[in-house]
Amino acid sequence: MIKAILIFNNHGKPRLSKFYEHYNEDTEQQIIRETFHLVSKRDENVCNFLEGGMLIGGSDYKLIYRHYATLYFVFCVDSSESELGILDLIQVFVETLDKCFENVCELDLIFHVDKVHNILAEMVMGGMVLETNMNEIITQVDAQNKMEKSEFFPFFSFSLSLYRRLSFSLPGRTGRHRQKNVSYCHV
Amino acid sequence: MALKIVKGSIDRMFDKNLQDLVRGIRNHKEDEAKYISTCIDEIKQELKQDNIAVKANAVCKLTYLQMLGYDVSWAAFNIVEVMSSSKFTYKRIGYLAASQCFHENTDVIMLTTNQIRKDLSSPNQYDTGVALTGLSCFVTPDLARDLANDIMTLMSHTKPYIRKKAVLIMYKVFLKYPESLRPAFPRLKEKLEDPDPGVQSAAVNVICELARRNPKNYLSLAPLFFKLMTSSTNNWVLIKIIKLFGALTPLEPRLGKKLIEPLTNLIHSTSAMSLLYECVNTVIAGQYSCSVGHIKSHLLCVQKLRILIEDSDQNLKYLGLLAMSKILKTHPKSVQSHKDLILQCLDDKDESIRLRALDLLYGMVSKKNLMEIVKKLMIHVDKAEGTTYRDELLTKIIDICSQSNYQYITNFEWYISILVELTRLEGTRHGHLIASQMLDVAIRVKAIRVFAVAQMATLLDNAHLLTGNMQRNGICEVLYAAAWICGEFSEHLENPVQTLEAMLRPKVATLPGHIQAVYVQNAAKLFATILKNQEGNTDSTAAQETSQMMIDRLPLFVQSANLEVQERASCILQLVKYIQKLQQKDVEVAEEVSALFAGELNPVAPKAQKKVPVPEGLDLDAWINEPPSESESEDEQPKAIFTKEEPKHSRPRHTEVDEKELARRREARKQEQANNPFYIKASPSSQKVYQEAPGVEHIPVVQIDLSVPLKVPGLPMSDQYVKLEEERRQKERAEKKKKEKKKRKEKRSGRGKKHDSGPESEEDITPAHVVDIVTEEMPEVGMHLSDDVAQEDQNHLPVRVKICICMFCLCRPLADSEKLPVRSHRAAGAPKSSAEDGEAENATPQEPKKKSSKEKRDKKKDKERDRKVRLRCWKHFPPSGHKSDSRSTQSEGRTVVTFLVFPLPRKVCDIQGNLQDGSQVVVSVIFENKSDSFLKSMEFNVLDSLNSKLQRPEGSGPHDGLTVPFQLPPGVSNEARFVFTVQSIVMPQKLKGTLTFIVKNEDSSTHEKLDFKLHFTCTSYLITTPCYSDAFAKLLESGDLKSSSVRLEGVNMPFHHLLARICFHHHFSVVERIDSCASMYSRSIQGHHVCLLVKTSGQTVSIDAKCDEPTLLGNVLDEIKQTFSQC
């Protein structure tokens, strides 16, 4: 089972948090802080597994994380999950985000956290892996987005796309860099 | 209408949407909280509007704020409103918000049941999908119960997208509403074979999770999963299935066997590391039982793991180590061979990897490398920054060193100095751990006390360094140990006055209460020692000064807020005042004061008390006096608390006992201890604590103190010991070679003996100090005797196994005079001398007994070899120099079996416990593993003859073997005893037997068989019995004895050698010797008398013999003849 999925940036600012077990808001923030603390002090070329989050899990749980440019993707999983499998799942997740956002960067996640949630919901459901095939995920996400659009008249969908275009001109957008190295495929 | 909608949309355009909120927050970095609170106010306004679009927008923003840590549960009802919107867009926003912030205690959840049911049955698959996703996060028992049926229907939905979600969510439903599992299970099982791989994967996923909780219920699915495993190509599914098998194999051994092949195939064929790793893991999990097939796959696993660990990818390295630690539990040997690799990982920059390697270290240490490994760890301790990792290192160091009773520590001075070095760690939580180690070592290793006391005194002196930050600092716990050790073993202190002064410093009052209490109590002990030291002096001022110091300093503790400290301090203060009065009258008080703390503390095995049998007629539950009244029990109480808290310190206090009484009691106690087999005695002969090993005295404490610059002055660095230890070992090795000869002579005395501590490793390294509970001598008998006796027919064996069989005839009770303590038996040098200079005949009646009971006779199955053995035995008596060569000439790859026959003093028989009658013989077998492999599952079996039978446990058949109750790592020997019932002893006989065992090394494990023969000679039934000449004469006169005689030609040896040989090999004792004529006597275990008259003239020896059993006599004479024909 996956207990939590966290995305935060290099400064520990949460970009997405998904807990598959209930905690109150304060505990959630504490977990995010603690996880960030554990993960951020690790070098780039050390292993991606981490034991010993005090707040979340216990001895059976591991933090499995990946660091892409400015973002950390952290999965907290128990021993029923394959460590390398989860690493690949993170990779699939990031690649899917990349496809859905057309060259994803931190800003996409900042402004469209709801969309990220929707994509994630097609991959992991209630802490269990639902789908690992990227094309299948994208098909379903696209189909739902299309449905969303069709529910509004053209004016509104125009406003959405207008917004998207505006967001391109935001400062910081130019600094998009993403770890393109996707050769790391265990599965 | 249309206009209204347009207007609503335009309104919306001017509301803040999520993106505006995010941007706003980013623009208000300084007053983020304030900005967000205004936003929340706006959201509250928006939620009040009727427009669902506005509400959905507000909820969407709330979801974001929830992620930032704001409580949004107040909007739960609005979320439910948005969820029930007919538009997918809003519905999705609602469900997302619900999944983020709803939980079991959210009361509005019960309003959602119908809405969710409606969504589940919606014609739009995405409505259903969104509802399922949301439900998976906030399903409650009520929801699960109400919706289980609907979800079950969805499991057969036409769309695979819905099916897989429905299958997955069933797991959550099962968790919340377990009753649903039974009805839903058949359908779930069906889904394992769903045409859609996604659904199939989901079903596998759910069953794996279920099986993790209760594997037993899912064993029946194993064939189905087996089929899936061999057919599926989806690695995700395969991983899950293989993980599931990992959980199932421990329950069903056959499954493990069956899995080996497909798993091995997968390991060979897959390119996916994750799959390979899981396969390896499952193979390991199935390896608790070890058969030949397993060994092959096991080897493959270890190989693959090594590849993983060697990989440059840190993730693979980590996982490799993780899996290794699983192997360590079942097959420590195969991990040990990768020691180099694991030690390398200790230096890895990655903490996760280092921690994993640390875990593995535990099984990796040996006497040889312990110091080196700990040194490495100490370096890491110094470098480590995070306290968590440092604490982990600390506990590991202590774990490694103290494992199995300090088995691997050869130098305790080194260990103490390691512990002292560890006290320098600031802010560690493990002060108490270090303290308990110090106490344990100081108490149990007597030889180390002098050193430990010196170290502890230094620690006390520098206490201020340890207690820099008293409150948070767990390290001050070590002062507890330091104070106690200094007090208890104060006789070893070099400068007790100084230590006493250090213990009574005002700063001590800032220590935690329990430590102060120990300080006070031990100050009193120190005081007693100082008085004793100073009593002899003519000048009594020094003693009085000490008393004065106590009186000056103790009031500080009397005022302590801690009751324990206060109570002890005031008690001791009054005592000291009284002592001072006596001192002023010039009364000698030292003796009586030290009587307060008299008695030595000895380590006793934790379970020893249980083993002491309750004497007959003693009822422990009965009151020994009238039950105490209320008031009395109150008086009792403080005492009980005291003993409870300080169990180690409680001791009888004889304050008012006079000298004589004291001495009497002490004597009585000693007596009692001596008689108590469970009390480890303090006498040097039995305790061998400080083995005067060469090299130990070369560790000069003072020298180290001077040479090492230290943070805490006067503390030796443990590093020094590594070097010193090297030297010591080298010396020892050299010494050992020299000693070899000597040892051979001594070995006769080293008869197999009961061990308190199981087998001792035969490693070359001997410890410099010995932990108390480890007893000293090894059963060495026979190992030397049998050295170059080989069994050619066992040549094919890849392993060398040496079995030495000692036979104890335990039948006849021995006279009181014969009940010699086993130890003194062994220690005596008698056999040497008797054989060397043939004093046997001159010895007192008792003496030859001693000798002969130690050494009787050895027999080989093959006559040719038998001769050799005897020759060897003989040659061992004089200090001849060929001991070492006989060792080296021992050919490789052979198996050696030697039998030794030993009658034992009765005492030992008693220990055996199972022998009451004269027809039992105990055969003691020493198994020594001379191979490099691990031997296990040894079974000892003997083909019974009509006359002799191996005693087997009740219920086993006459052909069953006996399991040898231990395993043998390489180089280790151990002793097992087997009882035989013998009916007639008049004839010699041979019993055929086999020893089966499993040879295990890294790459394989094989069943091996070793045939041997047990030779019960008639001589072996004889017991050396002393006989006085008058009794001997009477016996001969009685006329009950039949006579027989034998003549030996060509015996070319001095007469006394000849006699010694008969005594030694055939268990006779010399009754009388006159010139070249001697009378000898022996008795069989069944009470037959055997008398010999041995005469010699030139090279001819004639033996006239008489015995009440002619057959026995004939056989004994034959054996004697054989002995001499072989010289």
Summarize the structure.
The complex is a heterodimer of chains A (187) and B (1127). Chain A has 6 helices and 7 strands. Chain A is of the alpha+beta class.
In words, what does this structure look like?
The complex is a heterodimer of chains A (187) and B (1127). Chain A is of the alpha+beta class and 187 residues long. Chain A is built from six helices and seven strands, in the order ββαβββαααββαα. In chain A, the strands form two sheets. Chain A has a five-stranded antiparallel β-sheet, with helices on both faces. In chain A, strands 6-7 form a two-stranded antiparallel sheet. The longest helix of chain A is centred in the middle third of the chain and has 18 residues. The C terminus of chain A is likely disordered. Chain B is α+β, with helices and mostly antiparallel strands and 1127 residues long. The N and C termini of chain B lie far apart (129 Å). The interface between A and B is large, with 61 and 72 residues.
Write the layout of secondary structure elements.
The complex is a heterodimer of chains A (187) and B (1127).
Chain A: E1 2-9, E2 14-19, H1 25-40, E3 49-51, E4 62-68, E5 71-77, H2 83-100, H3 106-111, H4 113-123, E6 124-125, E7 128-129, H5 134-150, H6 154-168
Helix pairs in contact in A: 2-5, 4-5
Chain B: H1 2-14, H2 18-27, H3 32-48, H4 52-67, H5 76-83, H6 88-101, H7 113-120, H8 125-138, H9 141-154, H10 160-176, H11 181-191, H12 197-213, H13 222-231, H14 235-248, H15 253-269, H16 273-285, H17 292-310, H18 314-330, H19 332-336, H20 339-346, H21 351-361, H22 370-383, H23 387-406, H24 412-422, H25 431-444, H26 449-461, H27 463-466, H28 477-488, H29 496-503, H30 513-535, H31 541-553, H32 555-558, H33 563-584, H34 590-595, H35 608-611, H36 630-645, H37 659-675, H38 684-687, H39 701-707, H40 718-746, E1 801-809, H41 822-827, H42 830-837, H43 846-854, E2 857-859, H44 863-876, H45 883-888, E3 896-903, H46 906-912, E4 920-929, E5 934-942, E6 948-950, E7 962-963, E8 973-982, E9 989-1000, E10 1005-1016, E11 1022-1023, H47 1029-1037, E12 1042-1048, H48 1055-1066, E13 1069-1074, E14 1077-1084, E15 1089-1097, E16 1100-1107, H49 1110-1125
Parallel strand pairs in B: 1-3
Antiparallel strand pairs in B: 1-4, 2-3, 4-8, 5-7, 5-9, 6-8, 9-10, 11-14, 12-16, 13-14, 14-15, 15-16
Helix pairs in contact in B: 2-3, 3-4, 4-5, 4-6, 5-6, 6-8, 7-9, 8-10, 9-10, 10-11, 10-12, 12-14, 13-14, 14-16, 15-16, 16-17, 16-18, 17-18, 18-21, 20-21, 21-23, 22-23, 24-25, 24-26, 24-40, 25-28, 26-28, 26-29, 28-30, 29-30, 30-31, 30-33, 31-33, 42-48
